[in-house]
Design goal:
With 147 residues, the chain is of the alpha+beta class. Helix content is 33%, strand content 14%.
Length: 147
């Protein structure tokens, strides 16, 4: 269906020097649908994929075997104008250990605040500040398995 098949290390099972992350990754659907589609991918899920891929590319360059796997945890603030939905799914693909969802006008405000925070992070060049990593870890949310 045009999606890239990968193993647990974000690596093509057919070509070991090819890595993939993000919306182009072939995640098996939870159920068959009339229209072929893939599992939705959230920003944090993609960050998890990219973090694992980057670490594994570094291992590959050094001639080592890949060893990092993304957790594929999902955190999402879905803005819908003046309202929205927020959810956490650990991991995003069932079976899940944690699933939480709330909706309301507060999500729109949270999304605007998060966008400002995210842009500041990107401008400073720090994609995962220590305080963010520590806060998410207290909630049981990490980018890589074993963190």
């Amino acid at each position: 269906m045009g999606f890239v098949k990968i193993n647990d290390f974000q690596q093509s099972p057919e070509y070991s020097n090819i890595y993939s992350a993000g919306v182009c990754v072939a995640i098996p659907p939870v159920e068959v649908t009339p229209v072929p589609c893939s599992t939705p991918k959230t920003g944090y899920l993609i960050e998890s994929m990219v973090t694992a891929a980057v670490h594994n590319i570094c291992h590959d360059i050094k001639g080592e075997k890949p060893e990092k796997c993304g957790t594929w945890n999902a955190i999402c603030l879905a803005d819908m104008g003046d309202t929205g939905a927020a959810f956490v799914a650990i991991p995003q693909i069932p079976p899940r250990n944690v699933q939480w969802m709330k909706k309301g006008k507060w999500v729109h405000t949270a999304k605007v605040m998060f966008e400002k925070y995210f842009m500041r992070k990107m401008k400073t060049g720090i994609s995962e500040p220590f305080y963010e990593k520590a806060f998410l870890k207290t909630l049981g949310i990490t980018r890589l398995d074993g963190e």
